[in-house]
C-alpha cells in the first residue's frame, strides 16, 4: 500500500482499516507518516486503535516530533496525557534533553507530567531535573520531585528536602517530605521533623507518616515518643504505632518497656474489639518482652476463636516451648476442619522443621 493510501486509511470510518493502516506504518517504518499518526491519535475514539498507535510511536523514531508529542501533556483527556509519558519513557536517554528543555512550561500540571516522563525514561540523567524541580513554585511539582527523589534514594537531595519541609506550610508537601525521609533520613533528621511538628502535640494528619518514618529511621531513644501515643485516644493509629514500636525493638534488641506499657500491650492482645492485625502486632511486642508469664500468655491466646490470632499465638509459643505448641496443635487438629485444619497442618510442619 502506498503512503497516500495509508494516510487515507488512518481516517477511514472502519476501525479495521485504521488498525491495518497503523500496522503498515509500523511495519514499513514510514517515518513520513509519524505526524499523521500523532494527529490521528488525538482524535481516535477506538481504544484498540489508540493503543496500537501508542505502541507504534514507541517503536518508531519520533524524536523529530517530540514537540508534537509534548502537546499531549496539555490534553484534557487523561489517556492522551498518559500516552505522552509512555512514548517519552520508551525513548530512554534520548528524550531527556528535550524534556529538560521544556521544564519551564507555564502550566504546573504539564511540568508535573514532564517529571513523570523523565522518570519513565529510567535515565540517571533525569536526576538533576528532579533536583531542580524542588525549587518549583508549584507545590504539586515539588511533591512529585520529592517523591521520586525518595524512591530513587537520592541522598544528595536530603538537605534540600529538609529545607522545604521546614519552610512549607503546605500539608501534602510536608507529607511527601516525611515519606521521603522514611527512605533517606538519619536520626538527626527524625529529631528535626519531630521538633518542627511539635512532638506528641503534632496534628493527627501527620501521625501515620511520622510513625512510619520513626519505624524505619528511629532508634530506641524514640521509643518514649511512640509509647506516649500508645493509649485509647489513638486507636485509629494502632497499626502504625505498634508496628513502629516492634520494628525498633527488633532492630535495637529491646526486651523491656515501662511496666504500664507492657501491661497495655498484653491487654491489647486480649482485646477482642481490636482487629486481628493489631492484636497480632501487640503479640509480636509481647514476644520480645522479658516477662515471666510469657509462655502462659501465648498458651491462653492459642485457644482463641480468631484463627489468625490463634495461629500467631501458636507460632510464638513454639519459639518458647516447641513441644507444648505441637501438643496444642495436635489437640486442635482433632476437631479442626477446612481452612483451619490446613493452616494448622502447615504450621505443624513448619515448627517440626525448626
From TrEMBL:
One Pfam entry name: HEAT_2
Gene Ontology MF term list: oxidoreductase activity
SMART domains attached to this UniProt entry: EZ_HEAT (SM00567)
Domain of life: Bacteria
InterPro entries: ARM-like, ARM-type_fold, PBS_lyase_HEAT
PANTHER family, per the entry: DEOXYHYPUSINE HYDROXYLASE, PBS LYASE HEAT-LIKE PROTEIN
The protein, known as: HEAT repeat domain-containing protein
Source species of the chain: Geovibrio thiophilus
Taxonomy of the source species: Bacteria, Pseudomonadati, Deferribacterota, Deferribacteres, Deferribacterales
Amino acid at each position: 500500500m502506498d503512503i497516500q493510501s495509508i494516510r487515507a486509511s488512518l481516517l477511514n470510518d472502519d476501525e479495521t482499516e485504521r488498525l491495518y493502516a497503523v500496522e503498515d506504518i509500523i511495519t514499513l517504518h514510514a517515518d513520513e507518516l509519524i505526524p499523521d499518526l500523532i494527529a490521528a491519535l488525538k482524535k481516535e475514539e477506538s481504544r484498540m486503535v489508540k493503543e496500537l498507535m501508542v505502541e507504534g510511536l514507541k517503536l518508531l523514531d519520533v524524536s523529530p516530533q517530540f514537540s508534537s508529542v509534548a502537546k499531549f501533556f496539555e490534553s484534557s483527556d487523561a489517556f492522551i496525557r498518559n500516552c505522552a509519558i509512555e512514548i517519552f519513557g520508551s525513548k530512554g536517554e534520548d528524550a531527556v534533553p528535550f524534556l529538560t528543555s521544556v521544564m519551564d512550561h507555564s502550566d504546573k500540571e504539564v511540568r508535573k507530567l514532564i517529571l513523570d516522563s523523565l522518570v519513565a525514561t529510567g535515565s540517571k540523567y533525569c536526576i538533576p531535573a528532579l533536583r531542580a524541580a524542588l525549587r518549583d513554585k508549584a507545590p504539586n511539582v515539588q511533591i512529585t520531585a520529592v517523591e521520586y527523589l525518595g524512591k530513587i534514594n537520592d541522598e544528595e537531595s536530603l538537605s534540600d528536602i529538609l529545607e522545604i519541609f521546614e519552610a512549607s506550610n503546605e500539608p501534602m508537601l510536608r507529607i511527601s517530605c516525611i515519606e521521603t525521609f522514611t527512605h533517606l533520613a538519619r536520626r538527626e533528621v527524625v529529631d528535626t521533623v519531630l521538633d518542627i511538628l511539635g512532638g506528641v502535640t503534632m496534628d493527627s494528619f501527620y501521625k501515620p507518616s511520622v510513625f512510619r518514618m520513626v519505624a524505619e529511621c528511629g532508634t530506641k531513644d524514640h521509643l518514649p515518643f511512640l509509647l506516649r501515643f500508645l493509649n485509647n485516644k489513638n486507636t485509629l493509629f494502632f497499626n502504625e504505632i505498634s508496628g513502629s514500636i516492634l520494628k525498633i525493638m527488633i532492630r535495637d534488641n529491646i526486651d523491656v518497656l515501662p511496666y504500664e506499657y507492657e501491661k497495655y500491650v498484653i491487654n491489647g492482645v486480649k482485646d477482642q474489639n481490636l482487629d486481628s492485625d493489631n492484636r497480632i502486632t501487640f503479640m509480636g511486642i509481647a514476644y520480645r518482652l522479658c516477662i515471666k508469664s510469657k509462655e502462659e500468655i501465648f498458651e491462653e491466646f492459642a485457644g482463641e476463636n480468631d484463627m489468625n490470632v490463634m495461629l500467631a499465638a501458636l507460632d510464638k509459643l513454639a519459639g518458647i516451648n516447641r513441644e507444648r505448641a505441637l501438643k496444642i496443635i495436635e489437640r486442635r487438629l482433632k476437631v479442626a476442619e477446612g481452612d483451619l485444619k490446613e493452616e494448622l497442618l502447615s504450621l505443624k510442619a513448619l515448627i517440626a522443621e525448626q
